[in-house]
Amino acid sequence: MSLLSTTYGLLLVITVGLSALTPLRLRGLLLTLLSLLFYAWGSLPHAALIVLLGSLVFLIGERLHKTRSPALFASGVLLCVAVLCGFKYSVFFLQTVAGLWPAKDTATKLSQYAQSLLLTLQIPLGISFFTFEFVHYLTDIYQGKITRPHPLPALGKRLFDFFLFALFFPTLLAGPIKRYQQFSPSEAPLSARKEELAEGLWRILIGLMKKVLIADSLATITLRLKAPELVTPPGLWLAMYAYAAQIYADFSGYSDVAIGVSLLLGYRIPENFRSPYAARSLQDFWRRWHISLSSWIRDYLFIPLGGSHVPPARAMVNLLFVMALCGLWHGAAGHFVVWGLWHGAGLGIEQLARRLRGPKEGNHGKLFALLGWLWTFHFVCVGWILFAAPSLKAALTALGRMLWLVR
User: Fold this and answer.
1) 192: Cβ–Cβ under 8 A, 6 or more apart, which residues?
2) Under a CB-based contact definition with an 8 Å cutoff, are residues 376 and 284 in contact?
3) CB within 8 A of 77, min separation 6: which ones?
4) What pLDDT score was predicted for residue 185?
5) 362: phi > 0 → left, psi -120 to 50 → alpha, else beta; which?
6) CA separation for the pair 407, 398 (Å, rounded)
7) Amino acid 356: pLDDT
8) How far apart are CA 375 and CA 373, in angstroms?
9) What is the pLDDT of residue 188?
10) What is the rounded distance in angstroms from the CA atom of residue 367 to the CA atom of residue 374?
11) What's the confidence (pLDDT) of residue 3?
12) pLDDT given at position 2
């Protein structure tokens, strides 16, 4: 479902209207039920799946509050990851195995089964967002970062609070990835003050303008990256820059709308973008781009692996690993993995350069800042070719033609 669809607009108007008429203490319950209706509208079986998975995660979390059992925690995380992999990556896994399998007959059968599965398997809306939020919820309970409120609400109230956090419909389409502590479903929503209403409407307007006036307008130019062999080198350079603008306007536009709708409903969700193309390093870029995802990867993957407080070689391996997973999270295809490895390598190079430079402080001058911006912006733009192309072969063809290395 698109945020420009009639269904989304109708649900938004109904939800905001009913929310305004509902007492604050009951608004969370109303939004939970309407969010479930929104999800079930797209697919009732998928809604049942998410409710079942969410209920299991909630019950495991309730038990973790009491026992902090490593086995129970690991089981909950593996359950969430298994559901994600089963829906989103099973076809990719089968295709990869088929490509590497030495026996031709077996490889052909695996490939045919993968194609059949691709045509029949429907991926639940937002399954990646659900997985990351569920893993965060279990991890933070296990580490004592999420504690039970006092006095303890009834079990039913806690369950509805959890599903309000998980199903909150403004964030289902494209995030941001929420943290339970940031969202605070156990607290009463904000009262409908004029400031929140004005800010919410303004963010929705800005988001729609980004989406319609910028992202959709650039779509015809960026399509050149889908068939680079038919486009001139200057045309591909133009498409690369256009895609950088398009993906930012499209994705940040969705986030703006989600934040605006949330404000209209009385909730403030975290920002997801902060002028990412103004970054002067890749590390700074990832502090500004898709902030909810990059911070999740940092807190739940990179830091547990040792972060930057390990030998340089291991830090590079860690960066490559977590960024490859970041690429795979965006799409089950080889070119997304290579996009992640591209960023992992860039981050590793920057980290090595900082180690060699030492703890030098202070302003390095405008020229240094300009060079840092040029490096970061163009490194990111080249990476977008890997992201936008339909395959790794097409991306390499585009890069080769842009550098006049192939015809």
Assistant:
1) 20, 266
2) yes
3) 135, 138, 139
4) 60
5) left
6) 10
7) 80
8) 5
9) 53
10) 11
11) 67
12) 67
Could you list the active site residues?
330
- Residue 276 structure tokens: 């990412």
* 8 Å CB contact between 269 and 262: yes
The token pair at 100 is 């590497």
Integer Cα distance of 192 and 384 in angstroms:
40
**Residue ranges in the chain whose pLDDT is less than 70:** 1-3, 184-193, 358-364
Q: Whole-angstrom Cα distance, residue 282 to residue 376? A: 6
Separation between Cα atoms, residue 273 and residue 52, nearest integer Å: 32
User: Which pLDDT score, from 0 to 100, does residue 194 have?
Assistant: 72
Pair 138, 60: CB distance under 8 Å:
yes
What does the chain come to in residues?
Answer: 407
Q: Which two tokens stand for residue 51?
A: 């409710």
For 132-195, the three-class secondary structure string (H helix, E strand, C coil) is HHHHHHHHHHHCCCCCCCCCCCCHHHHHHHHHHHHHCHHHCCCCCCCCHHHHCCCCCCCCCCHH
Rounded-to-integer distance, Cα 302 and Cα 65, Å: 25
- Name the residue type at position 267: Y
